[in-house]
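Problem 3 from the worked examples.
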Amino acid sequence: MRGSEMRRRAPEYRRQSRRRLPGWIWWLVGIFLVVGLMLFVLHHNQKEQFRPPVINKVSESEEVSPKNVNFTEELLSSTSFARQLADQMTLAKAYVILAKEHGNLQLAWELSSQIRNSQRLLSQGAVSGRAITQEEAHPIITRLARLIYKAQDSHYDISTTMVTLKSHALALEERAKAAVVQTAEFGQLAAESLPKNMHCLTMKLTEEWLQNPKLMSRSEEHRNSTRLVDNNLYHFCIFSDNVLATSVVVNSTVSNANHPQQLVFHVVTDRINFGAMSTWFLINDFKGCTVEVHCIDEFSWFNATASSLVRRLSDMETKGSSGGLKTQEREIKFHNPKFVSLLNHLRFYIPQILPNLEKVVFLDDDVVVQKDLTQLFSIELHGNVIGAVETCLESFHRYHKYLNFSQPIISSKIDPYTCGWAFGMNIFDLIAWRKANATSLYHYWQEQNADQLLWRTGTLPAGLLTFYGLMEPLDRRWHLLGLGYDVDIDDRLIESAAVVHYNGNMKPWLKLAIHRYKSIWERHVNFSHPHIRECMFH
């Protein structure tokens, strides 16, 4: 049994034989492969045929639009044709000057022509933003080189070139210095001159003063007013020969005062403008305030004996008439209106001008008041003579900027880093002034400066020395400076300032005034006044 079972089960353990695919199936697979290959080849050929020529387009665009270059770098590059052209132009310009000086106008003309060609080529390269090629630069460089060699054959060598150019440089430097001095002089003349319309106003007012005796009588009556010496009122002093400018100061002050009837103005002018100034303040009302006008000639004590300044000016006038002035520079200094105008120096004699007063506010004629100034009289000066706004900022406007500290008399007594301050709006304690004898200090420093070695001109350096250690700083908002020269003052500073000051040459009544600030001044001018209309004020 077991043997027969084994024989029957044996086929279960045999390896099955492989079945072969029919031949027609192999044929079918082969046909599909061939057709697929043909389709692939055909599709690839079509893509190559219709592909756009990208590479050719790029190359063509590169040929049409060359790569932009930085022309500044081209000019600085030692290997560029632009640099070579520029260097040759510089040398050629020097030889043009030499050729003209030696009368060789033909060579100068030829060099100038090639220089213009070089400039034209360089400008074209700069505009197009491309590098200058050798084909463009070679003809000009060659012609310039020949002309330069020709100039050198004419003995225009490097040493001659250097000497000539140095002399030209020195001459240009001298001309530049002369132009700076001339500009300053013209600016000063423009600032100190009186416009035609303001001169017209002065003439009309003077004519009215001379033709109307009642005005003189009223002027004498005003001088007897008790208000002029009443220390319970608020007193202001102005020293000016400009009628309209003084009027603006008075008008702006009373317009912003809470009680204008309590204001008293003491105006001092010169003999020429006394009649016009008196007439103006007699025929116009300024909200009930009192205005007193004096002539500087009335102060008999202001003479050569008492004042070193008057004595010095008298001596200079005498020497000038006898030919004693030797240098133009010295003559200019003593004829500078800022120096010779005695009205500017009256600020050092306020106690003598107003002997009965205790406190007074000094105002320049180129300021405009925007706030009530009566509060100034309640400021405590702590025993000092003057209250002023300081002008120093870091190292600017300190004493060493105004005074000559190489002089021992200055360096031994004054700290060079003391903060400077401004005239133009100041409160004076006349009791402290008399106690400190500040006017005598002013005379002392004027005597020491007889040779103009301590400071040049002006009243500020003398004031810094006279009131050294006697100045009380005020809040900066009381006095804003710069409207006569600075065009960029912040509007917020102008609005918050109690007084704005047109210090500088661009006065608001001149044509060269800064237009931005002119309306601040003009709003206090009565353009409807008959005299002002007749003099064509606009």
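Problem 4, a separate protein:
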Amino acid sequence: MSSPTKSPTKAAHEHALLLNSIAEGANEYPKPEHVNYTYGTAGFRTLATKLPSVLFRVGLLAVLRSKRLEGATIGVMVTASHNPEPDNGVKLVDPSGEMLDPTWEAHATALSNCPTTQSLISTFTTLATHLRVDLHQPANIVYAYDTRPSGPELIKALEKGFEVFGESVKTVNLGITTTPILHYVTKATNDKTGEYGKPTKEGYNQKMAGAFKTLIGNRGPLASLYVDCANGVGAIALQEFISTLGDILPVHPLNTSTSEKGALNHMCGADFVKTKQALPPSVQSSNVLSKAGTRACSFDGDADRIVYYYLHETKGTFRLLDGDKIAVMVAMFLGDLVVKAKLDEEHKLQVGVVQTAYANGSSTKYLTSRNIPVTCVPTGVKHLHHAAHRYDIGVYFEANGHGTVLFSDGAIKALKTASPQSPDSANAIKNLLAFSELINQAVGDALSDMLLVEAVLAHRGWGAPEWDAGYEDLPNRLVKVEVPDRSIFVATDAERRLQYPQGLQEKIDEAMRKYDMGRSFVRPSGTEDCVRVYAEAKTTAEADSLAFAVTDLVKWGSGQT
């Protein structure tokens, strides 16, 4: 619906006032010299001291996006996830609760790199015209930030970007909360049916707790779970959630020092556990996992990633249950429920898994051997999320623990209209619908995914060892190789093979053939002059040897030898 027509004189006057307000804000938050910004999958992310000008400009873009979509609510999250505490970042969330439309990423990059106030005004005006934005439309924004000390000052810069538009912009400040909760509130605010849930933090907790209780039924209370919160915002969200959930799942939060300087993500959190393949020292020293059968998990700094782990009962060795392990268990279980519900026959519902080249080869082999289709896509959440939409129930998790499950509209309709053939099929349908409510389908969500894992384990009657027993990860190694020019490395086939430099892939193939179950690929970094070499093989020694052999080939291919 278009806004009421204004007289040309009044409209011109209002436009001049808007541009003056933008100029004032731009002068207050000037772009630093010699800094280049790029909006990627994670939005903008760098040292917090370099970001005030970016936050102001993201405020402008968020309002443009909302006005272009006739007042639909846009989300803005200020976070740097698993990065060190001095970093920060910002990303936009579309009305669906999913990431910003990729075609707008270039607009974010263009605005953030305008070197002067005048160039910013010129670029803003050009964008508004090019995108056919009616600046008289209302705009609605919901925004939040994590526990980083730099957050409040960056939020002021963001709010300045909103304020230049005057009363046409309505905002909701969620304060300190997790990235997934911001995504949830954005989606819920735009859901005019009200079916998705209340657009508040409390609404999120109620929806998750309600679905989890439905799934657990009379199986509770479950075994205790220790949760490493990475000294981040997940600690606050988890505490609030526990008070809503009650004692059905005894949760013991660890690493909850959200106000201690330097503690965020330091020697703890999902990224530490995954990269070091070890317990956080704080968990190790607490001995909470010494009792047989005890399991733990780690969130990352903004609670959108999760990995599980436990200690082997007899050997006492560390065992990681990462994103691959989560995806396999969840996909197998949902596939079983679809069969029990008879929806594989009547509606031909298909459960599929989406992976990247970094997924462990054993997980891929395990799934395909059990007739679960697997799609491999380039690295990046947007590629995984997009491909998961192609399945009726699409499961995707990166090995780092970021992932979710998507239920298609057709799958939900089939579940809601199905005629159960038996009490078993009725129960399976009820559980599938509860899982669709429990899972945050907009984005990877550590809290939601934790409940997903716990619900599946409860239904299977498993502990961590039974979950882990499905398949053994192949030993693997990831090596970062600095190169003079990463652009000469061009990957193809979902980043599993190199197209250029010519002749290099053939040499990598030759190296792989020398190792039992050897697999390796080379992927150029998106942000720095380096490439990453991934290698896996039957033994740790072979995986290391293959990784170093391919590293030498990369140096040869880049002219360093």
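Solution to problem 4. Residues 323-469 form a domain with the Alpha-D-Glucose-1,6-Bisphosphate; Chain A, domain 3 fold (CATH 3.40.120.10). The chain has four domains: 18-176, 201-210+220-310, 323-469, 476-558.
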